[in-house]
Amino acid sequence: MAVSFVQRRFMSNALQKWAYNLSGFNKLGLMRDDCLYENDDVKEALRRLPQTVVDERNYRLIRAVQLSIQKDILPKEQWTKLEEDVMYLQPFLKEVKKEREEREAWNKQY
């Protein structure tokens, strides 16, 4: 018996929410882009972000460190929800990676 598209989509959403909540960073109020390893590409993308977004990110990181030190988590109503988690750094990161790859290709040719 075939599973309808709506049922598969629901199962997919339920699985996504389960995995997202299992990851744990949302219990500290962090977003996915807050958890990226800061290599050169990420540092350049962060440099290009508007200052208000950087300030919000820094606040979330400081709060998460404080909660970690206290061995505590936020109240459930303050957890970051999957629907609220915005990939704010990804457009900048894609642009930085593309520029780096173009620069590397240029340097190989000349």
TrEMBL record:
Keywords of the record: Electron transport, Membrane, Mitochondrion, Mitochondrion inner membrane, Respiratory chain, Transport
Subunit description: Component of the ubiquinol-cytochrome c oxidoreductase (cytochrome b-c1 complex, complex III, CIII), a multisubunit enzyme composed of 3 respiratory subunits cytochrome b, cytochrome c1 and Rieske protein, 2 core protein subunits, and additional low-molecular weight protein subunits. The complex exists as an obligatory dimer and forms supercomplexes (SCs) in the inner mitochondrial membrane with cytochrome c oxidase (complex IV, CIV).
Topological category with respect to the lipid bilayer: Peripheral membrane protein
Protein name (Swiss-Prot/TrEMBL): Cytochrome b-c1 complex subunit 7
Role description: Component of the ubiquinol-cytochrome c oxidoreductase, a multisubunit transmembrane complex that is part of the mitochondrial electron transport chain which drives oxidative phosphorylation.
The organism of origin for this protein: Nicrophorus vespilloides
Compartment(s): Mitochondrion inner membrane
Pfam families: UCR_14kD
KW Electron transport (keyword) present: yes
Matches recorded under InterPro entries: QCR7, QCR7_sf
Family: Belongs to the UQCRB/QCR7 family.
